[in-house]
Amino acid sequence: xxxxxxxLRAADMELWLTMxxxxxxxxxxxxxxxxxxxxxxxxxRSAYVxxxxxxxxxxxxxxxxxxxxxxxxxxxxxxxxxxxSDDYRSRGIARALVQYLExxxxxxxxxxxxxxxxxxxxxxxxxxERLGFEQTEKVIFYRKVLD
Length: 147
Description:
The chain is α+β, with helices and mostly antiparallel strands. It contains four helices and five strands, in the order βααβββαβα.
């Protein structure tokens, strides 16, 4: 299957929002749109779409984080999110997206690539392992609201 990967552009906002809703359905369109605008405005973040002849079938987000749990170098290129349409899963789309981002990181001189997965997201954990990521640690985050 021929897959083309390119950076998302401002003209792709509606397309990206449609895919964003699939990955993060618990968030409002306003919140997702604000996040997309932050990504476009940032010099450390970007997003990429995977396209086949039928159109867009997935996307991935890339960030340059100051620190990533389990990584030894700083800063660290980081996979912030990846989503592939149900009809195109298990066809190498996620692999193509991640390999594209890994190549981008290597060309920039980085030697590690970070990512994270929620503890109960077993399909994503399996995908990461199949793509060559290794588990480094498990973390539970806490917060306390200050009055």
